[in-house]
Write a structure and sequence with these properties.
The protein contains eight helices and seven strands, in the order αβααβββββαβαααα. The longest helix is centred in the C-terminal third of the chain and has 20 residues. It has a domain of 141 residues: Metallo-beta-lactamase, Chain A. With 214 residues, it is α/β, with parallel strands linked by helices. The protein is elongated, with a radius of gyration of 18 Å. Helix content is 38%, strand content 14%. Strands 3-4-5-6-7 form a five-stranded mixed β-sheet, covered by helices on one side. Bound molecules: zinc ion. Zinc ion (ZN) binds next to loops.
């Protein structure tokens, strides 16, 4: 999380365990996901460095054991050029970083629709019905929640294609009720189930840029 949130993050850890934080894995290199690393490494934690950044896509799958915990890292390209799915087979928890959100629209701009769908497929392969899936933002989820997101994402791209989005203005696309109702499905269980209008506009613009302006 961001440095400003390190204190609340530590407090959340303390509600679960008295043990020290010994290892940190980052799903990608954005500051709201690794900005508080220093606070934990100052207390003795080791941040596991995985090759690759959002600017430099050199990530490979690997698995290793840290203390008693097996960790499997899967390299994917979706939200950034170097996203990692981090899976702990012991407790059966899968961290997806910003390749999956439950209270926001997809931000799939590095890998395009193909990368987003490949990432979801990889996660569905890793997870079973009991896996806790941790999104980058929003409440915890599971395989079912990820499949809701997958369907909404496919419908979003299909509707954009049906509207010939590349030839339309952002305002014309914003006026489409079908598109708007699909976007609401990304806000899983959130009330109100609507994106802020500014964010919705940007989501449309970025989708067109990434997928429909070739
Ligand atoms: Zn991010």
């Amino acid at each position: 999380m961001l440095p400003a949130h390190a204190t609340s993050l530590k407090a959340a850890v303390r509600q679960i365990t008295d043990k020290p934080v010994t290892y940190i894995f980052n799903t990608h290199d954005h500051s709201d996901h690794m900005g508080s690393n220093d606070v934990f490494t100052a207390d003795g934690a080791t941040a596991i460095q995985v090759e690759g950044t959002s600017e430099n896509d050199e990530v490979a799958d690997f698995s290793a054991t840290y203390g008693s915990a097996e960790v499997r890292i899967y390299a994917v390209v979706s939200h950034t050029k170097a996203d990692r799915l981090v899976f702990l087979p012991g407790p059966n928890v899968l961290f997806m970083g910003d390749t999956f959100t439950t209270d926001w629209h997809p931000t799939f701009y590095a890998g395009g629709a193909e990368g987003q769908l490949a990432t979801i497929a990889a996660a569905l392969e890793i997870a079973d019905d009991d896996t806790v899936i941790v999104p980058g933002h929003g409440p915890l989820s599971d395989r079912q929640g990820l499949m809701v997101y997958q369907k909404a994402f496919k419908d979003w791209i299909d509707r954009m294609a049906a509207l010939d989005a590349g030839s339309k203005s952002t305002d014309q696309l914003r006026a489409d009720a079908g598109l708007r109702s699909i976007a609401a499905r990304f806000m899983q269980g959130q009330r109100p189930a609507e994106l802020p209008e500014q964010a919705y506009r940007r989501f449309i613009e970025r989708t067109v840029t990434v997928e429909f302006s070739k």
